[in-house]
Structure formats: C-alpha cells, structure tokens
C-alpha cells in the first residue's frame, strides 16, 4: 500500500478516537473520506461538519458507489472493535479489498517520520498530547495522532510542517507492534486487556517487544520500576531515577515541581493541569523532548499553557459553590491516581463520585482493586457496566463491586436516577469517572451544578 496514491478512504468504525484521527488526516490530504459507525456522537457530528460522510446503519447498499469498485487508490480501514459479522466489513472482504487495521495505517504513516511514540496502560494520552504541545508551543512543530481531544487544539490530530510525528501507541490487540519509533515513552505496564492477553506476563512481553522495536540509536524513556532492561528512567521524588520531579507542591490550586536529570534542572515549573500523576507524565514528556534540543524555558512555558485532554481530569464546573471534575479513568490504578489528586486538591470537601465500570472482563479481573480504590471516596453512585464490545458474563455486575466495598454511603442508580440525585443533593465536590458513555451525563450535570 502506497499512501501517496490513495484518493478514497472508507473507515469502518469511524467514530472511535483513533479512527476519527485517521479520517481527519486523510481528509486534510484531500482524499474523499467516508465511514460507518453504529451510533452518532459529538465526534461523528464534528466529522460530518468537517465534510466527512458517515452512515449509522450497517448496510452495504449505503456504501457510496465510488467505493464499491476494487481500486488501488481506495483504502479500507477497520477497527478490531467492529464485530466480525458486520455487513459492511464483510462486503469489502468479499469484494476482494485488502483491509487494514487502524494501527497498520498509523505504522505506514509514521514510517518515514522521526517518531515519538507513547505507550502505557494508562498515562499515554495525556503524555503524548503534552509532548505534542511542547513541540508545537516551542516552535519546533510536529504532526500528532492522539488518543483524546486536546483542549489546546480541539482535535485529536495535529498537522505539522516538519518530519516529526507524535503517536499514541495503543497496547490493545498488540496494535503498537506496527510502530518502529525513534523515541518511545512507556508510562505503565499494569495488568489490563486480559481478554486479549490472557495474563499479565503476556502483556509485559508485548511491551518488551515494543521497546525492542525502537530504531537503532533511538531512545527509550520509561517509568522507574517497570520490567524493562534498558532506557532512561523517570519518577517522582526518586533521586535514583535518571530524571525525577522534586519539590512537588500545590500553590493556589496549581501544581508546581522542579525537573532534574544529570544534565538539566528546570526549577519552578507550573502545570497548566492538576494531578500528581500529571506531574509524573510531565517528567516523561520533558525527558523525551530534551532529545530534540528543545529550549528549557520553552518547555517550562509550554507546560504552563497546557490545557490537557478532554475527559482527563477535566474541570467542568469550578465555582465557589461547586467543583465538578470529569475523568476517563477505567482501571483501578487510574482511579487511584485521579481520586488521590482530587483529595489532595480539596482535602476539606466531601467527595461524591459517579462511576461507570467499563467491560465485563475488566470488572471481573480487577473487582478487588476497584472495590479498594472506590472505598477512598466519601459517597459513591455506581452505574451499570458499560459492555462496549462484550456480551454479559454471569455474576459480573455493578452490585458485585458494591458488595465488595466497605464504604457505607454507596448506591446503584440508573443514569437518570443519578442526574436526579445530583439535582436534589447538589454536592460541593463531584467526580465522574469511566470510559463508557458516562460522558453523556456531563452537560446535564454541568447545567445542574452551574445553576446553584
């Protein structure tokens, strides 16, 4: 597949964050871009408004005629999240089209670039977006494929005028093994996606393979303590790491820290976003961009102007009466980092949390971890499990998590009941967390808490 010959692109599962980034990229290049997804979302609405045609019925007769003929200039991209019995997927297969996974296309696009790839079971979206913002804001520039909507650029894909590319390297379905980066960051290797990997050992092996694919003369930057043989390590307050954050503190609601490695000290960095975990992400991003000789004052300035990623510790309401934060956390360690940061920022406020578990397998595999971390909040509203691509598993449900918890102030509610409860109780500190469709509550909750 020669990408420069492509004139038409069809994406099956176009509404996903990674797929929509590819749709925007090829549309930007002047290709005719169309796609299918099962549901309309704000993201698919944005793509439609940008001139990309999308259908929401899995019907082959709705595929545009120009895509129905087998041609060398037509690229068909699919996501593994699309069911194998999809009518549109099988239409292209039966017509003899070669179908490419999103990750394969990302590998092809980044092949001829100086690539900075960010991997990890959590932390990768914020860290990759941080790296891209530092490069953009400092005037060094880059293109980027991100796993979330950057609040600075209101997009998940950025276009640069140079040969530097930042990509989020996704471990799901071993997708990141299509990448051969010049610089790689690995933020975490906690057990996850055990429906794909079977056990933690196979997940670890996959990350080690990814690390081995760094180009000759390239650089690996990884969190200290991960089972990796080489590379530059980073940490918070651990002076034995190659790079670390020192003097981490909160002043007037902002996080500050000093960056220190063997060659450079950058004092008094003010973070534009909150969270101890984001200080750690920043240390990784700095250590990576220093490989491109970025000026340290420019790095410091960029981190101060970094607004984060939609649904990553995102302030929705911030008034004297109410604080409301929304986060994508869907793994026990992500939840721990998020909840800990909220409690550090607001130690004297009662924390009400609405949590939507994501996937039956993840809920089953990490039930004890979820219960332990959710016990950290003051009041919990639990929603039903968001199934995504999965069928129900007997005995695995939200009640199972609630029964494992010691917290007394907990209840299981529907989404509408949760909205009614918040409207009635008007909590002073609210956190919504989850990777499913809990984000559909955000605007309604914002309206409730903004009006008193």
TrEMBL record:
InterPro entries: Mur-like_cat_sf, Mur_ligase_C, Mur_ligase_C_dom_sf, Mur_ligase_cen, Mur_ligase_N, MurCDEF_pg_biosynth, UDP-N-AcMur_Ala_ligase_MurC. One of its GO terms (molecular function) is UDP-N-acetylmuramate-L-alanine ligase activity. It is found in: Cytoplasm. Its EC number is 6.3.2.8. ATP binds at residues 120-126. Residues 118-288 form the Mur ligase central domain. It catalyses: UDP-N-acetyl-alpha-D-muramate + L-alanine + ATP = UDP-N-acetyl-alpha-D-muramoyl-L-alanine + ADP + phosphate + H(+). Pathway: Cell wall biogenesis; peptidoglycan biosynthesis. Residues 311-435 form the Mur ligase C-terminal domain. Keywords: ATP-binding, Cell cycle, Cell division, Cell shape, Cell wall biogenesis/degradation, Cytoplasm, Ligase, Nucleotide-binding, Peptidoglycan synthesis. Residues 9-111 form the Mur ligase N-terminal catalytic domain. The keyword Nucleotidyltransferase does not apply. PANTHER family: UDP-N-ACETYLMURAMATE--L-ALANINE LIGASE, UDP-N-ACETYLMURAMATE--L-ALANINE LIGASE-RELATED. Cell wall formation. Belongs to the MurCDEF family. This is UDP-N-acetylmuramate--L-alanine ligase. The gene is murC.
């Amino acid at each position: 597949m020669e990408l420069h010959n492509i004139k038409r692109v069809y994406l099956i599962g176009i509404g996903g964050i990674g797929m929509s980034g590819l749709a925007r990229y090829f549309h930007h290049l002047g290709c005719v871009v169309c796609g299918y997804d099962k549901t309309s979302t704000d993201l698919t609405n944005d793509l439609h408004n940008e001139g990309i045609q999308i259908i929401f019925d899995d019907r082959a007769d709705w595929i545009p005629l120009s895509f129905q003929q087998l041609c060398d200039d037509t690229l068909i991209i699919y996501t593994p999240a699309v069911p194998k019995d999809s009518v549109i997927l099988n239409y292209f297969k039966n017509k003899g089209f070669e179908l490419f996974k999103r990750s394969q296309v990302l590998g092809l696009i980044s092949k001829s670039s100086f690539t900075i790839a960010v991997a990890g079971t959590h932390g990768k979206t914020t860290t990759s977006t941080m790296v891209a913002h530092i490069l953009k804001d400092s005037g060094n520039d880059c293109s980027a494929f991100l796993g979330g909507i950057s609040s600075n650029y209101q997009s998940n894909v950025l276009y640069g005028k140079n040969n530097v590319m930042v990509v989020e390297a996704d471990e799901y379905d071993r997708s990141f093994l299509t990448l051969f980066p010049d610089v790689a960051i690995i933020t975490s290797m906690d057990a996850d996606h055990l429906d794909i990997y079977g056990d933690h050992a196979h997940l670890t092996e996959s990350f080690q393979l990814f690390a081995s694919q760094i180009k000759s003369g390239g650089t690996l930057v990884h969190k200290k303590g991960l089972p990796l043989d080489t590379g530059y390590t980073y940490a918070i307050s651990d002076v034995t790491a190659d790079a670390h954050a020192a003097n981490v503190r909160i002043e007037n609601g902002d996080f500050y820290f000093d960056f220190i490695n063997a060659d450079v000290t950058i004092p008094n960095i003010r973070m534009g976003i909150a969270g101890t975990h984001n200080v750690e992400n920043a240390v990784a991003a700095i250590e990576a961009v220093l490989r491109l000789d970025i000026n340290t004052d420019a790095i410091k300035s960029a981190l101060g102007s970094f607004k984060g990623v939609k649904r990553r510790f995102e302030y929705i309401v911030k008034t004297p009466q109410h604080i409301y934060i929304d986060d994508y956390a869907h793994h026990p360690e992500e939840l721990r980092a998020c909840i800990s940061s909220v409690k550090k920022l607001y130690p004297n406020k009662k924390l009400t949390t609405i949590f939507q578990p994501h996937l039956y397998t993840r809920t089953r595999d990490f039930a004890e971890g979820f219960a332990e971390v959710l016990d950290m909040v003051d009041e919990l509203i639990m929603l039903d499990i968001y199934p995504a691509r999965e069928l129900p598993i007997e005995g695995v449900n939200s009640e199972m998590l609630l029964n494992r918890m010691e917290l007394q102030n907990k209840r299981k509610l529907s989404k509408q009941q949760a909205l009614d409860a918040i409207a009635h109780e008007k909590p002073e500190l609210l956190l919504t967390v989850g990777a499913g469709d809990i984000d559909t509550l955000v605007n309604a909750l914002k309206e409730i808490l903004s009006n008193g």
